[in-house]
Structure prediction request, 530 residues.
Amino acid sequence: MLLIHGDETQEAKSTPAEDAALMAEYGAFHEGLATAGAFVDGARLQPTATATTVRVKNGDTVTTDGPFAETKEQLGGYYIIEVPNLDAALAWAAKVPSAKHGSVEVRPVWEMGAE
Amino acid sequence: MFRAEYGALLAALARRTGGDLIAAEDALSEAFAAATEQWTANGVPDVPDVPAAWVLGVARRRLVDGARRARAVVDGHERAHAIETRAEDEVDHEFLLAKDSLPTDDDRLRLVFTCCHPALEIDARIALTLNTLGGLRAHEIARAFLVGDATMAQRLVRAKTKIRAAGIPFAVPPEDVVPERLAAVLRVVYLIFNAGNGAGAGDGVERQGLVRDALRLARLLVEMLPDDGEVAGLLALLLLTDARSMARTDTSGELVLLPDQDRSLWDRDLIDAGRREVERALVLSSGAPGPYALQAAIAAVHADAERASDTDWAQIVALYEVLERVEPTPVVALNHAVAVAEIDGPAAGLARVDALEAAGELDRYLYLHATRADLLRRLGRPADARAAYSRAIELADDPVERRFLVRRVAELDRE
Prediction:
């Protein structure tokens, strides 16, 4: 799984032309993944201003506005890819357009039935 | 007999397990136990390579058996299945044709890149490399790095578990990342050497062991990557540095700096070997030597000087200028400043060191303050020198270095 983190306040400042360029880059990235047969799933997330967090404590549901944690970089989207090993995943991670501005965390998914 | 062969055998097995080091190690230690039993009774087979092939054959059988057992317990267990399909088709005829089943350099190369993968933290890379390729046990590595046995064992298990869970491949990395990954491998070997080569007496035996292990790993890398200038450069640097080890402390174990060393104690064979590697490194890097080749070249210039006063400082300054371009770090700049002081005088050197001190990055670096102190002493500013020495003494963890600095202050008081 590729978890894409970036600074939302910077992203909010981008011009429409920059947005369009980024979308085009993501289009190409997506096509590359699909062509290689590596794409499983992926999505862009709405900004953290739209986030709501739920916790259940002693049986009571506590709902708070905002993200799970206030951090400098926020989770902005994700891809789930199917690749043979970490090096292959890292190569895709480096190609994520937002890696140039933010960061991409690579995490293996816990496979059901294994280990 | 086994330490020398251990890494190669483990590497060959790790290829069968798809990089699962834990499974490979279990099979190997069972095979060693079987070998010990067999050979205690019948004697070690007196044919080259046969003992290694025998151990490998038994270990591969264990992998197959283990996979069968695991499959019986959890039907469709993916990892076990992968191990079995990889191992089963090869084990029988390879076991019989012992000669062909010997480990290859490729396997060892895969192993070293796996152990030095940037997804692992640096301490884990060092421990893992010593453990797998070097054949050291957890408690031996623990003693050399002054951490508890349990801590080290845990560090190793955690690293091996991450390799498996994160899918760190058992492979030579893709070509476009090889330079970065190779640099990480060389750094691990360099850090192992440094840990063994520290000035402190520490536990002498373990420390010397680390120097030997680092040299062995560096030679192994040269065998595996004979055309790489930086690999040759690293081996050269280690050889030339190790050549001076006898002269670096006096008979009572006190530190002796380069200009005051008894150069007749330098090991000529190591210097000759190091010089050959430097030349090879410079040829291989074809006009663009990397940081290890350059540091080795500097060490070679020192080795060429019969007396400290014969040192070709102009050459050394020129090499540092190139090194600072290739590796623009404050530590390189500090060493450059020391060389400049030898040519243009201590004031010129001090100007550079003061600039580094103002930048603040090396504030907790003992050698910045020790160097400053020495330059101030040579410029006839004993009060400033004393202040710089006391800052250096504050930062000295190593008792030998601390005593050296305290001696320097005492000399200052006498002058």
In short: Chain B touches chain A through 15 residues (CB under 8 Å).
